[in-house]
Specification:
The complex is a heterodimer of chains A (588) and B (192). With 588 residues, chain A is an alpha/beta fold. Helix content of chain A is 34%, strand content 17%. Chain A is globular. In chain B, helix 2 links the parallel strand 4 (69-74) and strand 5. The structure holds thiamine diphosphate.
């Protein structure tokens, strides 16, 4: 049977068909749907949202110890968090097949950097598979388990946004019955004491030699005959772009792209006169192939920054010169924004009224950095808000400076905010930490986490109390507040920033999008009373707009959070139905 | 046949991904190779969204660059303007005459261009204008605007109507099916 699947759906299908027993992930665009899809097979596969990517990889590795097939998936930066177990897993190897899926994001559609995770395969000395469409994504997931077991190694399956989020046709099969090897203690393989690790390093280098031989005959590393004297070497989605740009060329399509099949590449080079290497982001193949002494054209022409597409490729190579000129007016940008009724908005509004340094973090709330709120001084990576705040505070000690406030989401706090908070307590920091607890991982599409009381498999579980957690690690001043009460929010923040001790303020309103399909009573503006002072616009609420010199609320978008009602100095804003159901007053 | 490339664009929340899912599934049902691509993530928060569907005998790239689209279907008119450079010289724009202010415009920090439809027409030969909001309301809900536009798009593509209906029936929950089928018909009633 054929189906139209995204690359992520195809990996999930491959995991199921390939007999996976355990699958783990922490969400992150563009990887999130892999585990969401695997959860549909929860009858056959144990799956979980792990606290973070390091934990996810370690859980999968533990499952591999037991001789079952395991998969873990993450976005590219997630593999940085999981890098420590990645390098150990390389030495330990795999008993049950272990596939690590990394979804890279060329073009940074929703990421803080554009790192090319193929380098991880090289530095951890493990095989790398790069599918170029959904069919290959499924096939390579299955092949990944086989290679992993045959060579006693974790396998890196690397997708990119255009593989993860593009749909193409896939042939579906049934689930294979993979016999479970069972757990056997193996000291000399899994206890990485220096003496053991030294032996394992010898094994790893030898394994790499054998993998290189394997790559020479891997059927998906293939030469495609052409009609010209030009040869193209490509992998991943870049192969598809190149096929359109070079219809007559010879192709060496690399799917097993680390370690590289040197003999096959040399053979290919002897068949053509001129070689182009087409790959997105870093010159990964190019560097290796140049080191083989082969002359190629690559990143001196083809952009290293951003995504490729056929037009960009043609233009960078000088095959297409024309660029059409249009006569267009100024086109305003359409940046993403916090939703109407978002409980993050009033906190950022309150912060914007105080003179503070705000170290931010990653999640929907990062949008508080944009106009009109403009209330974030930094956003580095997950968990950095709290440790960055401590560093700033320590560096500025003894100088006149604004107080420092760290703002972090609930999912992010559990992912990597706890250890920095302990650091702050331990090292006598005094900054204020605000945890925006909206009971979900909103940014990536509303996944559960340890603070929501539900698992990926849909079961009820212990709900971690952020308040009690903070108290337990020694935060003496912990407050749970209603963010929709702007006045109180501002007062408490203002009080806590002056305290010579760390404080944690936790908000308690769920994400508005968790009430999907609800019809709320909107707020309306009395046009007679409105003087057009525009104070309400400072919230950046997408439901409020300026028309002429008056303000209007879009009833279709408003969810009745009442924050603007509270702010309006003229009392011109009211709920349309004072008794109606609003996000601030949800009934049932 | 040559690969056909269609871009569907608009604002997050307008149902662009559903529309492109329906189109891609229609291509599959009609026996073509097909690929479709879009970016999830930040776009859900009221940002601009663009989805690409390509079909033909054999499709390689799931996306296209500038100067490559046969048709741009814009669910919001500013988005037609934003994506105009994707269009081939011979390409067509089907535009919903519907305005959705970006936040910087709504908050008075930026302005929405005047006469967007005229600007489109002065830059591109084949522009087809649909009053999607009015037709969707007539069909029963403003939310069916995406399917109204698909109805109009279907007039330009060579797929039998039965396939469209079959896929819409498969993709849309039965509760909303009737108004969506009505919306599809309303979109097809347009004179082109
Ligand atoms: C290491 C790493 N993993 C995953 C992500 C993707 N990601 C960005 S923010 C975020 C979590 C957001 O949840 P939360 O902190 O609860 O904030 P919310 O979006 O709900 O406001 C995730 C998973 C990332 N950027 N970095």
């Amino acid at each position: 049977m054929k189906a139209l699947l995204s690359g992520n759906e195809a990996v999930a299908r491959g995991a199921w068909e390939g007999g996976v027993k355990v699958a783990t992930a922490y969400p992150g665009t563009p990887s999130t749907e892999i585990l969401e899809e695997i959860a549909k097979y929860k009858k056959d596969i144990y799956c979980e949202w792990s606290t973070n990517e390091k934990v996810a990889l370690e859980v999968a590795l533990g499952a591999s110890y037991a001789g079952v097939r395991a998969l873990t998936a993450m976005k590219h930066v997630g593999l940085n968090v999981a890098a420590d177990p990645l390098f150990s897993a390389s030495y330990i190897g795999a008993t049950g097949g272990l596939v690590i899926v990394s979804c890279d994001d060329p073009g940074m559609h929703s990421s803080q950097n554009e790192q090319d995770n193929r380098h991880y395969a090289r530095s951890a000395k493990i095989p790398l598979l790069e599918p170029s469409d959904s069919q290959e994504a499924k096939d390579f997931a299955i092949l990944g388990f086989e290679i992993s077991e045959e060579f006693d190694t974790p396998v890196l399956l690397r997708l990119t946004t255009r593989i993860s989020h593009s749909k193409s046709i896939v042939e579906l099969n049934v689930r294979r019955d993979i016999p479970i090897k069972g757990y056997k203690k193996d000291f000399s393989k899994r206890v990485l004491l220096p003496a053991v690790a030294r032996e394992r390093h010898v094994f790893v280098e030898e394994r790499l030699r054998r993998l290189k031989e394997f790559a020479e005959n891997f059927p998906f590393n293939r030469i495609e005959e052409g009609k010209s004297e030009i040869g193209v070497i490509a992998s991943g989605v870049a192969y598809q772009y190149a096929k359109e740009v070079f219809p007559d060329a010879w192709f060496l399509k690399l799917s097993f792209s680390y370690p590289l099949p040197e003999n096959l590449i040399k053979k290919f080079a002897s068949l053509v006169k001129k070689i182009y290497i087409v790959e997105e982001n870093d010159p990964f193949l190019e560097t290796e192939i140049r080191a083989m002494g082969i002359k190629v054209i690559g990143k001196e022409k083809i952009p290293q920054i951003g995504e490729l597409n056929p037009t960009i490729l043609r233009r960078s190579l000088g095959f297409e010169k024309k660029k059409k000129i249009y006569d267009l007016p100024h086109i305003p940008k359409r940046p993403p924004a916090l939703c109407p009724g978002c409980p993050h908005t009033p906190v950022y509004y309150a912060l914007s009224r105080l003179k503070v340094i705000v170290t931010g973090d990653i999640g929907c709330y990062t949008l508080g950095a944009l106009p009109p709120l403009n209330t974030t001084d930094s956003c580095a990576e997950m968990g950095a808000s709290i440790s960055n705040a401590l560093g700033l505070e320590k560096a500025l000690h003894g100088m006149e400076h604004p107080k420092v406030v760290a703002v972090i989401g609930d999912s992010t706090f559990l992912h990597s905010g706890i250890t920095p908070l302990i650091d702050m307590v331990y090292n006598k920091g005094t900054s204020t930490v605000i945890i925006l607890d909206n009971s979900t991982t909103a940014m990536t599409g509303h996944q559960d986490h340890p603070g929501t009381g539900r698992t990926l498999m849909g079961e009820e579980t212990t709900k971690i109390s952020l308040e009690r957690l903070c108290k337990a690690i020694g935060i003496k001043h912990t407050y749970v507040i209603d963010p929709y009460d702007v006045k109180q929010t501002k007062e408490i923040i203002n009080r806590e920033i002056h305290r010579p001790e760390p404080s944690v303020i936790i908000t308690n309103r769920p994400c508005v999008l968790l009430f999907r399909g609800k019809k709320w009573t909107p707020a309306i503006i009395n046009q007679e009373l409105c003087t057009g002072c525009k104070l309400c616009l400072k919230l950046g609420c997408p439901a409020i707009s300026l028309r002429g010199d008056k303000l209007f609320i879009d009833e279709f978008l408003c969810s009745g959070c009442e924050v603007c009602i509270e702010m309006c100095p003229l009392k011109a804003i009211k709920l349309k139905d004072p008794q109606g159901e609003t996000v601030k007053n949800p009934k049932s | 046949m040559q690969t056909e490339s269609i871009i569907i664009c608009g604002v997050g929340g307008q149902g662009i991904l559903l529309a492109s899912d329906i189109l891609a599934e229609v291509c599959l049902e009609a026996g073509y190779d097909v690929k479709k691509s879009e970016v999830h993530g930040m776009s859900q928060r009221g940002g601009d969204v663009i989805s690409t569907v390509r079909y033909g005998k054999k499709v390689y790239s799931p996306i296209i660059g500038e100067n490559s689209a046969d048709i741009i279907l814009a669910l919001e008119k500013l988005e037609a303007l934003r994506n105009i450079s994707y269009l081939k010289d011979s390409g067509k724009i089907i535009v919903n005459d519907y305005r959705w202010d970006p936040l910087p415009v709504a908050s008075g920090l930026d302005s929405y261009p005047e006469n967007v439809i005229e600007v489109l027409k002065s830059n591109v030969k084949n522009v087809y204008v649909v009053n999607g909001a009015e037709l969707a309301e007539k069909a029963g809900s403003l939310r069916t605007m995406n399917v109204v536009l698909l109805g109009t798009l279907s007039l330009f593509l060579d797929f039998p109507k039965e396939i469209w209906i079959k896929v819409i029936e498969k993709k849309i929950p039965s509760k909303y099916l009737e108004i969506n089928l009505e919306a599809f018909e309303k979109g097809r009633d347009i004179k082109i």
